[in-house]
User: Fold this.
Amino acid sequence: MAIPSNKEELIIAIESNYKKLKVEINSIPKDLTNVKTLEGHLKGSVMSVKNLISYLIGWGELVLKWNSKKELNEIADLPETGYKWNELGKLAQKFYLDYEHKDFGKLKLKLDSTVEKILVLIHSKSNDQLYGISWYEKYTLGRMIQFNTSSPYANARLRLRKWKKEQGFK
Assistant:
């Protein structure tokens, strides 16, 4: 799928990639969701399916936080307070810990809710607000949302498909 360049394409990309990802997530037996055999986001690390979902929730929640702060004319500390862009592996580890004790079913619902809130955010913006002006450095808000939603959803789906093949199931 091409990189979205307008509001409609962004919505389609998020909905399409998330729908495909959910099929993969829902096919994983619950007893395998805590097994740390997936390649992690920090070089040389491993993670579980729960960690992967926590990562997606974490980035989605950051997108919502950034937007909320900007709408209040507050400074959005990107990527996150205490982290620099060259420390995204460490930030991923934080996301894993944030949701470590959540039940897998509740994590799936939290991810659904986060995706829904992001779609509501997108629907509340005009195409110009999403793609017509720089929002963070040279990037538009639409591009920042895409970097942290539809693209990671597609990547997570590919990771899960590869992992499932390595685990010997479809």
